[in-house]
Design a protein that fits this description.
By secondary structure, the chain is an alpha+beta fold. The protein has 3 helices and 5 strands, in the order H-E-E-E-H-E-E-H. The two termini are 33 Å apart. The structure holds zinc ion (ZN). It comes from Thauera linaloolentis (strain DSM 12138 / JCM 21573 / CCUG 41526 / CIP 105981 / IAM 15112 / NBRC 102519 / 47Lol). It holds the Pfam family HIT. InterPro entries: HINT, Histidine_triad_CS, Histidine_triad_HIT, HIT-like, HIT-like_sf.
């Protein structure tokens, strides 16, 4: 994961400054709610970030309309990445909180073209709990959704 961490306050964060045109960016697409631009790190050629135009730190801070707009821009960008760079795979990554590996605290999603030997690694330590535990988790989440 990248080591750069931007802790600037809202309105002064690096993506807010990018949205405002105060710092340069290689823009790919924008609409009313979102902006897409090249990640300066380019983990693989064609690596794009899709961010909300409004400052919101995490998934829990964006509106349902912004969430929908981000998803649509991500898909639009993904088609363009596929057509332009022709990667055999593509990964979406969206991080929330330091423990979730978020480094810029302005909501964004990575669109990452993937290749078999690209060195990107995600540890996935399966726990494989028994079925009754899964049912318990699901019941708690259904209750949370019904209550929300
Ligand atoms: Zn911001």
């Amino acid at each position: 994961m990248p080591m750069f961490v931007d802790t600037s306050p809202p309105g002064q964060c690096i993506f807010c400054r990018l949205v405002a045109g105060e710092i340069p960016a290689a823009r790919v697409f924008e609409d009313e709610l979102t902006v897409a631009f090249m990640d300066i790190g380019q983990v693989n050629p064609g690596h794009v970030l899709v961010a909300t135009k409004r400052h919101a730190a995490t998934l829990f801070d964006i509106t349902p309309q912004e969430a929908a707009a981000v998803a649509q821009t991500v898909q639009r960008v993904a088609f363009a990445v596929r057509d332009t760079f022709d990667p055999p795979g593509l990964t979406l990554l969206q991080a929330n909180g330091r423990e979730g590996d978020q480094t810029v605290f302005h909501f964004h999603m990575h669109v990452v073209p993937r290749h078999g030997d690209d060195g990107i690694a995600l540890s996935w330590p399966r726990k494989d709990p028994p079925g009754d535990i899964l049912q318990g988790y699901a019941a708690r989440l259904r209750d949370a959704i019904a209550g929300g």
